[in-house]
Structures are given as structure tokens and as C-alpha cells.
């Protein structure tokens, strides 16, 4: 623990670049689905570090794996082999049904790898992505993000990206021409309002000539009730990106390339100093091993309970998503709901102006799901005008 003088700690917030609209809440400890602040106040965490703490805070499996690896080896360069990275690649390949892995540190980095891979493999620079999508804030990932408010301040961006509305198959087919080498889709647009793609739309994308990359940074690793969300969509993509929940909070990202699409990269084409870090990979192996049929069943059951509970409120327009990635569209401001929920010791997220996003740990119990739902119903009762109720 740091021994810095308390006055320096008090000045810490202003020493950080103001890139986040942080709540005035300092979290210091976590366990399972709960976190505690610096004053000892307990919160039910239904944001999960933005869908990152997949097994719950300090879950014993990745915790023990990370500790054991810390005692052996923290880092070596990718000029050498390591056991955790190769084990994780094998585990993910088995879940995918045959793939090679490139490890990095985040979802945005995994998307950058996918963009480069598609260019090298196809010789084409064009990309088709979706309106409302979010793929990251690095320059290439931002260029493929379909949210003008995030893109415009940093223009000009990487050229060649075309955007089509989600689930508009005709627009997708029109956008794809001989210049397009990659179609980039989130199975569920997480930041874009928790909008699920139709099975028929994704299947149509898979039938088109460009490589199909599914951005499963938020939907992968069991979040939707199957290990990959694409398992519910009737497709086998060429590329998949994972990050967020893969190591239960330790930084990691990965690009998976299906066996049918390998061969695009050669040594020197891409790299990452910290990619495949032994500690992160060891934790990720434990996460993948822990996500079994019983846990995936819990994801589906708890998600269904949340939907059934929340959709009965008159202030709720719709409840959507899959598994434990749930979007609650309300007539209230999502930011108002988030703030009011925090006062009731519940942490939730936004996904647009009027959509509240729930992404609790996959291990959440029925009791905690019911507690969170009842708290949200109370919040909606408090923040909505009486004429709506």
C-alpha cells in the first residue's frame, strides 16, 4: 500500500486527466457481487466493472491461479514461449472449434488486430460496421465505431469505413463491394443501447465475401448464456475479439482467427509487448475452466428473471438483451436512474440516454437478482413523474 501523504491522495483526482465522468465514490474492496467504498458502505455491483468481473470480485479460481503465477513468472517477451499463453490459446480454440489466438491487453487492441488482419489477409481496406456500434477509442477502433459524438472530435479518422443500420440486411448487402475486406459486428450493441442483432442479419453477413469479425468483447465468455454469443446466431465467424470478462478483471484481449481463415499474419506483422502476460493468461485459463454448463444455465435463468421482473413497471418501455447483458429502456434519464440507484446501494450502468444496462457477475444468485430488480423498481418509482405511474 502507498505511504504517500494524505494531502497528496486528496489531490489525486485532479492529477488524473479528465477522461472519465467519475462518480464521487472510491471503491476499496470487493467480494462476489458486492463492493465496499472507503467509508465501509456496501453496494450490490450490477455493473461488474462494465461486464468485466465475470465470476465476481476475488473469485477463488482466477485469484489462486494469478497468485500461483505471480510466484513463478510475471513477464517475459513474446520472443519466448510461455505455458499460460499456450494453455489459454488451446482452451479458447477448443471452445471456438478450431482457432489461433493473438493476445493483447484490451478490447480496443483486439479490434486493431482484427482490422490489420483483414487488410493483410484480403488486400482490401474497406470495412462495414453498424450505426450505434462501439469498438474502442484507439484510432482504428474509433474509426469503426458508429457513434458520431465519439468520432467527430478526432477526425480525420482511418478512411474506408461504411456504416449501416443494425438488422438492415438490404443496406448491408448494398454497402459491401469489391473494396470491403471486413464486416465488423457486435452480436449485441452494448454501448449502443443493448440492441441485439437478428439471427437472419448475422447469417446474411456470414454469407457475404468479406471476412466476418464478431466483436464479442462484451458478449463473450459466457455473458449471454453461451460461451460465445455467436453460438446462438447460427454462424461460425472468421474472426472473434474477446476481452473484458476473460481474466475476471486483469487486463487481457484476444483476436481469435478461425482455422479456415488463418495465414493472414506472418512474424513481424503485429505485436504487443504485454500481450499474453503469464499472470493474466493464468487467470483467464481459470475463468474459461470455470464457465461450465451449470454456470451458463445460471446466466440464462437469472437473465430471464430480471427481464420478467423489470418489464412489469409502467415506466419501462422495453427490456432487451440476452443472458446477463440486459438493457432497460425507460422514460426516465438513464443517468438519473444510475445516480438514484447508487443512493440505494446498487451500481448499474448506462447504454444511451434512456437505457440502463445491467451486467452483473455470471455467478449472481437468484436472491441478488431479485434484490437488484426490486431496488431498480423503487428507483423508477422515485425518479419518474407521478403521471406516468
SSE blueprint:
Elements: H1 6-10, E1 27-31, E2 34-37, E3 42-45, H2 48-51, H3 60-70, H4 83-96, E4 99-104, H5 107-122, E5 126-130, H6 139-143, H7 148-151, E6 161-164, H8 169-175, E7 180-185, E8 188-189, E9 195-196, H9 199-207, E10 211-215, E11 239-242, E12 253-258, H10 278-290, H11 293-310, E13 316-322, E14 325-330, H12 334-343, E15 346-347, E16 349-350, E17 355-358, H13 366-383
Quick recap:
This protein is an alpha/beta fold and 389 residues long.
| Sheet of most strands | 7 strands, mixed
Please, what is the average pLDDT?
95
Helix content: 25-40%
- The total of helices stands at 13
Q: Into how many domains do the coordinates divide?
A: 2
Find the count of extended strands (DSSP E, 2+ residues): 17
CATH superfamily of the largest domain: Type I PLP-dependent aspartate aminotransferase-like (Major domain)
> What spatial form do the alpha-carbon principal axes imply?
globular
Low-confidence stretches: 1-5
The CATH architecture assignment of the largest domain turns out to be 3-Layer(aba) Sandwich
Specify the structural class.
alpha/beta
Enumerate the strands of the largest sheet in spatial order, edge to edge or round the barrel.
4-12-11-10-7-5-6
Q: CATH fold name of the largest domain, please? A: Aspartate Aminotransferase, domain 2
The rounded Rg comes to 21 Å
N-to-C span = 49 Å
Summarize the helix and strand pattern as letters.
Answer: HEEEHHHEHEHHEHEEEHEEEHHEEHEEEH
The CATH class of the largest domain: Alpha Beta
Bin the strand percentage.
15-25%
